[in-house]
Amino acid sequence: MHPRRAIAPPGVSCLDPGIAEAMNSSRHLRVPAHGHGPGIDRKALWVVSELGLPAIVRSCVSCRSARHHPTGKVRVNANHKLLDVWLLICCDRCGRTSKIPVHERVNVRALDNERLRLFENNDPAVVRQLTMDATLARRAGHQLDWTGTWQLDTDLPFYDLQDADAAPLEVVVRFELPAPVRVEKLLTAGFGLSRPALRGMVDSGRIRLPLPVGARAREDLTFLVVAPPRSPGDVGSRPGGGGPVEGGGGRRGSGPAVSSSDEG
Ligand SMILES: [Zn+2]
After folding, report:
1. In the chain, where are the structural domains located?
2. What is the CA(59)–ligand 1 centre distance, in A?
3. In DSSP terms, which residues pair with 98 in a beta bridge?
4. pLDDT digits (tens, 9 = 90+) for 201-249
5. Cβ neighbours, 10 Å, residue 65
6. For the chain, N or C: smaller number of CB within 10 Å?
7. How far apart (Å, rounded) are the C-alpha atoms in residues 180 and 161?
8. How far is the CA of 77 from the centre of ligand 1 (A)?
């Protein structure tokens, strides 16, 4: 019984629904331990949307480049009952094709038939999944470079964090791809806050996160913005007529807020 589906703005995903579903099947929405209490009636959806696949970083034997991208093909080689499966990748600079072992000498019966069929058909969702697979990367000894693979789209029309009367807000962050993004970066970009202002809000408990602000997230999460604590001197009107009083400033609103090209 979740109202979440209702908050997804139309057309926010640039992914083919089938691919998105294939991606999402292995993930679960993470919710802060305290859940969403009563009184949270404002919700926002932020999407780490996909711009492209990560580069596969490993040295090319023909040139000095290290960046590769998948060719879109998977090679399956059967030798009696033993199978080899490779993801084919291509050097960005010289175009040389090389192979990343996905399965080596595995008994044909150990592989799910449907999975094998997807390999043999160069299924795009499988190619995409293998390309982003951190476990495969570790095993095969290459790195993934996520630069330029995502941008943050926010759906946050009128929410002034610095307004003392702002209603509590629940923000669902949905990842279309498992790009590692620092939580702090997500939030400074999403709210248009400076780092110190954001840290202040986290420290004061106004922003409640399911993981540390310095951690990297790579899957869906939900966080809360609760009403600011009121000090006695805070009651009544603010001096100066209610302008922004916390640090930070910067942009707010909707639209692409930040992209992964900023991140090293
Ligand atoms: Zn090369």
Report:
1. 15-53+148-229+249-262, 55-145
2. 8
3. 89
4. 999 999 999 999 999 999 999 999 987 666 554 444 444 333 333 333 3
5. 14
6. N
7. 26
8. 24
